[in-house]
Amino acid sequence: MKRARNPETILIFDISGHMAHFRKFYTNSSSLSYSFPPRPTICGLVAGILGRERDSYYEDFSLGKCGIGVSMRTPIRKITQTVNYVMTKDRYQVDGSKGGTQIPIEFVFPRAGMTLLIYRIYFWHVDETILNELSWRVKE
CA 78 to CA 1: how far, in whole Å? Predict the structure, then answer.
């Protein structure tokens, strides 16, 4: 591991989309959403950008090795929408024949008149090679 020369070096990049849902961990039947992506979501996103396998990056992005900040760049609004979940035990039951249930889900949208949600991510890592690789991949 190559230690970052300057602990003040932070990689800053934006992520955007038309809508989002960042599920609050303590909800069960109704899926409420945080207004912005929480730390585990950002860690998973960064790991995906770096091509890491699922569940293989927890140690690399622990609190002692990685710093993450998020700022909202657009005003938001939240809308709760009821979604029909279909009960499926195998691929042949996607027609809804086994019934289903309606679940309220809270979605995050940009405020009316805006088209995209934009979040700015501030990322620091103790390992300079991870910072450099992420910087290169984000620019691509």
Answer: 42
Residues 66-108: tens digit of each pLDDT: 999 999 999 999 999 998 887 777 776 666 666 778 888 999 9
Instruction: Please report the DSSP string for 26-68 in residue order.
Output: T-SSSB-EESS--HHHHHHHHHHHTTPPTTS-TTTTSTTTEEE
CATH 2.170.130.10 fits 11-88+98-139, yes or no: no
Determine if the pTM surpasses 0.90. no
What does the alpha-carbon distance between residue 51 and residue 130 come to, in Å, rounded to a whole number?
A: 12
C-alpha 82/C-alpha 77 separation (Å) is 17
CB 91 within 8 A of CB 139: no
Q: Within a 10 A sphere around the Cβ of 129, how many other Cβ atoms?
A: 12
Hey, where are the domains in the chain? 11-88+98-139
